[in-house]
Hints:
Elements: H1 11-38, H2 42-105
Amino acid sequence: xxxxxxxxxxxxxxxxxxxxxxxxxxxxxxxxxxxxxxxxxxxxxxxxxxxxxxxxxxxxxxxxxxxxxxxxxxxxxxxxxxxxxxxxxxxxxxxxxxxxxxxxxx
Length: 106
């Protein structure tokens, strides 16, 4: 018997369970945030805002680096495909020249 529990479950059941977990987590986070917001003073709100801004800035930086890396890989793949196409074209031309030179010899 395998130890992979999720492989034997239907995909719809897993999707519904994950959706329910996300809804419960969002609801509990909302309730905890509403309760915690009432007890905060202005200085705490400013500090939380700057922490949130820094976190979102790091997320934007990470996203930018991810897109840059994906673009460089795409450009490299395009270059490899172009090089392969040129190599195949050269190979076909050399085969044609080889057959033409053999016909001239005979």
